């Protein structure tokens, strides 16, 4: 048996992980509770438009909402038509923005340090504004 080598994380992956962390901080600070049911437990950020199909919107805060586990996996992913209708009704201005943003140019790896800095600044601002329970 040979030794198992651990693969080093690429610089791009490290930057994306750092950007994801700041993105998730900002969404949690902005929304605070599940945007569908109001729960405050088992919360996770969820993209409105899939980050795989629309990588240009991966770090766009208007392309995310906070959902609890029960509303995220069993509802949002299992019922995409119903979920889309709910989002469009609850957030019509955001939906209109996302419809136009779909074709926006995608970020480059060289943009990630600036994206991280912007997301960190926004997360810091949102955390300062958030009411503390």
Series of H and E elements? HEEHHHH
Overall residue-averaged pLDDT value: 93
Order of neighbouring strands in the sheet with most strands? 1-2
Shape type: globular
Number of domains: 1
User: Helix count?
Assistant: 5
Low-confidence stretches: none
The percent range for strand residues is: 5-15%
Q: What is the tally of beta strands? A: 2
Mind summarizing the main beta sheet?
A: 2 strands, antiparallel
Radius of gyration: 17 Å
Gap from first CA to last CA = 54 Å
- What portion of residues is helical? 40-55%
Broad structural category: mainly alpha
Structural notes for this entry:
The chain has 133 residues and is mainly α. The chain has one domain. It is built from five helices and two strands. It has helices at 11-31, 69-77, 80-90, 92-101, 112-129, and strands at 43-47, 64-68. It has a two-stranded antiparallel ribbon with strand order 1-2. Helix 1 (11-31) packs parallel to helix 5 (112-129) and helix 3 (80-90) crosses helix 4 (92-101). It is globular and about 50 Å long.
List the helices and strands and how they pair.
Blueprint: H1 11-31, E1 43-47, E2 64-68, H2 69-77, H3 80-90, H4 92-101, H5 112-129
Which key features would you list for this structure?
5 helices, 133 residues, mainly alpha, two-stranded antiparallel sheet
Offer a quick outline of the entry.
With 133 residues, the protein is mainly alpha-helical. The protein is built from 5 helices and 2 strands. The protein has helices at 11-31, 69-77, 80-90, 92-101, 112-129; strands at 43-47, 64-68.
């Amino acid at each position: 048996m040979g030794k198992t080598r651990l693969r080093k994380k690429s610089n791009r992956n490290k930057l994306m992980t750092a950007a994801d962390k700041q993105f998730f901080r900002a969404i949690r600070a902005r929304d605070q509770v599940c945007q569908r049911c109001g729960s405050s437990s088992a919360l996770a950020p969820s993209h409105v438009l899939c980050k795989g199909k629309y990588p240009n919107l991966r770090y766009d805060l208007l392309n995310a909402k906070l959902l609890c586990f029960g509303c995220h996996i069993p509802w949002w992913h299992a019922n995409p038509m119903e979920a889309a209708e709910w989002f469009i009704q609850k957030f019509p201005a955001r939906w209109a923005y996302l419809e136009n943003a779909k074709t926006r140019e995608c970020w480059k790896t060289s943009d990630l340090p600036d994206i991280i800095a912007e997301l960190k600044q926004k997360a810091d601002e949102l955390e300062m504004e958030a009411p503390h329970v």
